[in-house]
């Protein structure tokens, strides 16, 4: 049996806002298996974004245990956590977060910069990844020269370029029209079929319904899991 | 992250805000230019004075009565021609000893008159000091021993009294006494603030008779070589003290004069550089300010870079390099501007200026250091930015 991609055990996250303690997550347990396809749904403020940040190693839990790729996040230095994000996790954001003034190719190659890859290697791998997401004709285009769907494909290519085991997508279709959203989802699903675990955060029930299983968040807790 | 990549990112970021980068750089440009130009002027002045002191002649020993120190009372000279003979015996070569007695006198030739520094001297003056004749001949030993009333005019005096006319053989009066012009000096200009072209050299004996005195003001000795200056200095002072027990005598070498002047000018140059350094500091504060703005503007970018694996150090280095790139580019431009300014000052004004590699290197080094010092705080702030908060920023 393979190691689960992510294991969260009674994970909580409390924020200290001007001396007032606010619990965003109040004990969440969740396992993302290798090759899993999970949708996290819930209303705004339910804690799904906080959970997503924890699962991606962008943040650390204030309680419980969180293992990403078998490594305990609490025991990692900031540099090790950065390396974990670089090698194990791929992020896709609602607003794409592409660097303006930078070509699709260099945007996709960005994660490779932080593992010391040379320019040629970065461009070769970025080109291959852009071809994989169907953007072979957009390699030298900048974000403002591309449609929303194309930009999100660039973002997905960027998330995939380091060969991560988990893809974390935060409302990946939120800024796209439904037809474009469908094609982005189809892309994510085809990647999942190749063995990449996909964790999708969404408040769109239809999108969530396509996942293998759904986790419903409410008030910082998992209220239903399927 | 590779350093080359970090440089490229920094350069891109500066290019993205061209006008802002240029304006920020301007503070550093002006600061560095001021340092280079002012140090250049200080150095040029120092070099000019050194040349003037060295231009007096080499291996010179100047002997004057009194102590050479601040606050010492001026001493009236007890020296006479007998002392000169005694010193000549110590030196062993009369041609290496020069004397002077100075007096400001009115000189006349026909209807023209002027003011000149009359110097009563020995015939040895042109060999002890560096002094070249333009026309005629210098004083002879016979002129000195007989107190003949002959004069050698500085270029300025000759011009004032005779214009373009050849003054050789003509009569002038000095302090109302008639002298015959036998030579003129080459134009020499100013030396240590003294107009050397306003001098008139006459035999020391004639000058003493004119002034009604036996004294001489000072002695100069040209040592055969540098090594013997100190011994000679001690021997000369000992001989004079022996002959005049009530008077102190001081002997100074060119090195000592240069040392004192060099110290003064060094301090002056340092003060100029420090004043210019302040403007560099102000430029640095501007860099720091703009870098903080830049970090804030690019919060989202920082969040993204962290999300895809940038370590705090990678982000910090990126912003630090950006600051250093700003200041070093400003430093190079400032070096050019300061260099051109110094050259223009040297060419177009009476103030001398000289560019030195060390002031350029210093200014460049300081500008890089300013980038590091003033870039550290914004860079640390960027590096420590929480990726979650950064990504949420819209």
From TrEMBL, chain A:
Residues 6-226 form the ABC transporter domain. Keywords: ATP-binding, Nucleotide-binding, Transport. Pfam families: ABC_tran (PF00005). CDD domains: ABC_MJ0796_LolCDE_FtsE (cd03255). It comes from Actinoplanes utahensis. InterPro entries: AAA+_ATPase, ABC_transporter-like_ATP-bd, ABC_transporter-like_CS, ABC_transpr_LolD-like, MacB-like_ATP-bd, P-loop_NTPase. GO terms for cellular component: membrane protein complex; plasma membrane. This is Macrolide ABC transporter ATP-binding protein. The keyword ATP-binding applies. One of its GO terms (molecular function) is ATP binding.
Automatic annotation (TrEMBL), chain B:
Signal peptide: none annotated. It is found in: Cell membrane. One of its GO terms (molecular function) is transmembrane transporter activity. Residues 274-387 form the ABC3 transporter permease C-terminal domain. The chain crosses the membrane at residues 21-42, 264-295, 316-345, 357-377. Keywords: Cell membrane, Membrane, Transmembrane, Transmembrane helix. Its main location: membrane. The keyword Transmembrane applies. It is a multi-pass membrane protein. The keyword Phosphoprotein does not apply. InterPro entries: ABC3_permease_C (IPR003838), MacB_PCD (IPR025857), Macrolide_Exporter_MacB (IPR050250). Belongs to the ABC-4 integral membrane protein family. This is Permease. It comes from Actinoplanes utahensis.
């Amino acid at each position: 049996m393979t190691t689960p991609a992510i294991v969260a055990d009674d994970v909580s996250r409390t924020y200290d806002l001007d001396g007032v303690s606010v619990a965003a997550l109040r004990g969440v347990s969740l396992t993302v298996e290798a090759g899993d396809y999970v949708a996290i749904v819930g209303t705004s403020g339910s804690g799904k974004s906080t959970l997503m940040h924890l699962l991606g190693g962008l943040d650390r839990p204030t309680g419980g245990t969180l293992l990403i790729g078998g490594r305990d996040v609490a025991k990692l230095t900031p540099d090790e956590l950065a390396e974990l994000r670089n090698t194990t996790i791929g992020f896709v954001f609602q607003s794409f977060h592409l660097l303006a003034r930078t070509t699709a190719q260099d945007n996709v190659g960005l994660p490779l910069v932080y593992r010391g890859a040379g320019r040629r290697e970065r461009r070769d791998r970025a080109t291959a990844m852009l071809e994989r997401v169907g953007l072979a004709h957009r390699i030298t285009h900048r974000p403002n020269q591309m449609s929303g769907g194309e930009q999100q494909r660039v973002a997905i290519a960027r998330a995939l370029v380091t060969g991560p085991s988990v893809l974390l997508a935060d409302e990946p279709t939120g800024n796209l029209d439904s037809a474009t959203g469908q094609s982005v989802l189809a892309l994510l699903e085809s990647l999942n079929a190749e063995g990449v675990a996909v964790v999708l955060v969404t408040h769109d029930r239809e999108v969530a319904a396509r996942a293998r299983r759904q986790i419903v968040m409410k008030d910082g807790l998992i209220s239903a899991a399927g | 992250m590779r350093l080359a990549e970090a440089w490229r990112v920094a350069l891109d970021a500066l290019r993205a805000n061209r006008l802002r980068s240029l304006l920020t750089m301007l503070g550093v440009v002006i600061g560095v230019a001021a340092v280079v130009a002012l140090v250049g002027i200080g150095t040029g002045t120092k070099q000019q004075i050194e040349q003037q002191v060295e231009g007096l002649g080499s291996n010179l020993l100047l002997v004057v009565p009194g102590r050479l120190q601040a606050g010492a009372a001026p001493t009236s000279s007890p020296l006479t021609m007998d002392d000169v003979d005694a010193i000549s015996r110590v030196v062993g070569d009369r041609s290496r000893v020069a004397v002077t007695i100075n007096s400001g006198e009115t000189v006349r030739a026909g209807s023209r008159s002027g003011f000149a520094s009359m110097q009563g001297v020995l015939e040895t003056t042109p060999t002890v000091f560096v002094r070249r004749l333009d026309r005629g001949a210098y004083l002879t030993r016979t002129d000195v021993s007989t107190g003949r009333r002959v004069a050698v005019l500085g270029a300025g005096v000759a011009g004032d009294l005779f214009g373009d006319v050849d003054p050789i053989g003509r009569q002038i009066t000095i302090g109302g006494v008639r002298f015959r012009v036998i030579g003129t000096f080459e134009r020499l200009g100013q030396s240590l603030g003294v107009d050397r072209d306003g001098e008139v050299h006459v035999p020391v004996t004639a000058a003493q008779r004119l002034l009604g005195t036996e004294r001489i003001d000072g002695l100069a000795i040209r040592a055969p070589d540098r090594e013997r200056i100190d011994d000679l200095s001690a021997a000369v002072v000992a001989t004079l003290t022996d002959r005049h027990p009530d008077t102190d005598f001081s002997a100074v070498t060119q090195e000592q004069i240069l040392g004192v002047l060099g110290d003064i000018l060094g301090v002056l140059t340092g003060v100029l550089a420090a004043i210019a350094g302040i403007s560099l500091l102000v430029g640095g504060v501007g860099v720091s300010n703009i870098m903080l703005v830049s970090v804030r503007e690019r919060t989202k970018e920082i969040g993204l870079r962290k999300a895809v694996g940038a370590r705090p150090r990678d982000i910090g280095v990126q912003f630090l390099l950006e600051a250093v790139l700003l200041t070093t580019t400003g430093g190079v431009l400032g070096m050019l501007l300061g260099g051109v300014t110094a050259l223009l000052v040297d060419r177009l004004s009476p103030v001398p200026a000289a560019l030195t590699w060390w002031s350029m290197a210093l200014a460049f080094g300081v500008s890089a250091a300013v980038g590091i010092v003033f870039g550290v705080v914004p860079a640390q702030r960027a590096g420590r930015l929480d990726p979650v908060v950064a990504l949420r920023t819209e």
